[in-house]
Amino acid sequence: MRIAISGTHCTGKSTLIDEFLRVHPGFVHEPEPYTVLVEDFGEEFSEEPNVDDFQRQLEFNVERLKHHAREARVIYERCPIDFLAYIAALDTKSAESVLNQVIEGMRHLDLVVYLPLDHNHAIEAEYPKLRKAVDRRLSAIYNEDEYAIISASGIDVIEATGSTEQRLRTITASISSLP
């Protein structure tokens, strides 16, 4: 089972993945592309978020998705839709140019767990306007099938809300019901 945790920045993706791996130690963790590219490959990104940097992360993410076979047990921190949402929030026209790449990458996943912004537990985050804009884009993609990615890829998507424990229970229930 190949699972991706999706959401704008500072929504608890890393915390949820840490707890998931504690309960499901047989899964491999694929960290966020930004982290791997910077820490393992020495790439440098702009101080300000920009389309080119998100396109590079998307490219790397799709490459890593293709690396794992269907029967692998992997949990990814982010999926191609995350990068599309950031690109679309920064420049709608640029988003159109990566759609095929996003759809291709999504076909290498079995489940996406979307973590929407929780306005009841607001935390301070860098680039708060971008954070909200990305969450709106993610919501439109997952809930309204904006860009028709969900229907084209056939991916299962669940939304996980609440505490880390509640989100973990949501994922565990979903993976136990999948073939």
Describe this structure in words.
The chain has 179 residues and is of the alpha/beta class. Helices cover 53% and strands 11% of the residues. It has a five-stranded parallel beta sheet, covered by helices on one side. Helix 4 packs across helix 7. The radius of gyration is 15 Å and the shape is globular. It starts with a strand and ends with a helix. The mean pLDDT is 94.
Q: What is the count of β-strands?
A: 5
Arithmetic mean of pLDDT: 94
Distance between the termini: 9 Å
Query: How would a textbook summarize the main sheet?
Result: 5 strands, parallel
> Helix-strand pattern, N to C?
EHEHHEHHHEHHEH
Shape: globular
Oligomer: single chain
Strand coverage percent: 5-15%
* Percent of residues in helices: 40-55%
**Strand adjacency order, main sheet:** 2-3-1-4-5
Rg on CA atoms, Å:
15 Å
Number of helices: 9
Structural class given helices, strands, pairing?
alpha/beta
**pLDDT < 50 stretches:** none
